[in-house]
Amino acid sequence: MTAAGPVAVVLSYLLGSLPWSYLIVRLHRSIDVRTIGSRSAGATNVLRASGKWAALLALLLDAAKGAAAVVLARSLEVGSWWLAAAAVAAVAGHVFPLFLGFRGGKGVATAAGVLALLVPGAALGALVVFVVMVAWKRYVSLGSISAAVALPLLVGVYWSSGAFRVEHGVDSGPALLAGTAAIAVLVIAKHRANLVRLRAGTESRLGTSPPAPEGSG
């Protein structure tokens, strides 16, 4: 085994740890985004703290670091399992960032950037699920959770249809299915407080302030 795989994982985690949402709000309002709103370092909370343009910038930068992790891993020519591990590491970096004492966001935007390059067809399907759920129910958290649930199912469909390319002479389907499932579990786990509030009917809708310390973002 060469060092390329572990290097890709470590660098992907560090990329994921780049705290764009924290930096944007810190520069704009001189406050820690994790002390207000949902107390999450993510684009949804940036929207509450600094407005739509700042939130859009945070969303794009968080997605970009996820995409960059995939590009980096592929440039190192790692196998499909190391590629999947690097993808998970990038999302884990956003959720548990080294540079913010391991207190980050929910990983949704970073996961979107990862998946757009890793499994574009399934990512597009998950995006449709997200948009439909948010437009219907006005809960960003519900859209994120629904998309996370749908993602590995969509990847499974693509794999069974033979849509995945063969990388390094090995079917990449099992690795990508495992990686996307791990990302989905991570995103859903970070939304556990939202799940409790959704069941209780107290979750905040899009455009309103969250009633509890932790929320979607």
Main beta-sheet strand count, sense and barrel state: 2 strands, antiparallel
* Low confidence ranges: 212-217
Give the helix level as a range of percent: 55-70%
Mean pLDDT rating: 89
Order of strands across the main sheet: 1-2
Number of helices: 10
- Span from first to last CA? 38 Å
The Rg value, from CA coordinates, equals 17 Å
**Strand portion:** under 5%
Could you tell me the number of beta strands? Answer: 2
Shape: globular
Give the number of domains: 1
Question: How would you spell out the order of helices and strands?
Answer: HHHHHHHHEEHH
The helix-and-strand class reads mainly alpha
Would you give an account of this structure?
By secondary structure, the chain is mainly α. The protein has one domain (4-200). Helices cover 68% and strands 2% of the residues. The protein contains 10 helices and 2 strands; from the N terminus they run H-H-H-H-H-H-H-H-E-E-H-H. It has helices at residues 4-16, 20-29, 43-50, 52-75, 80-95, 108-118, 120-137, 140-160, 173-190, 192-200; strands spanning 166-167, 170-171. A two-stranded antiparallel ribbon has the order 1-2. A hairpin with a 2-residue loop joins strand 1 (166-167) and strand 2. Mean pLDDT is 89; it is low at 212-217.
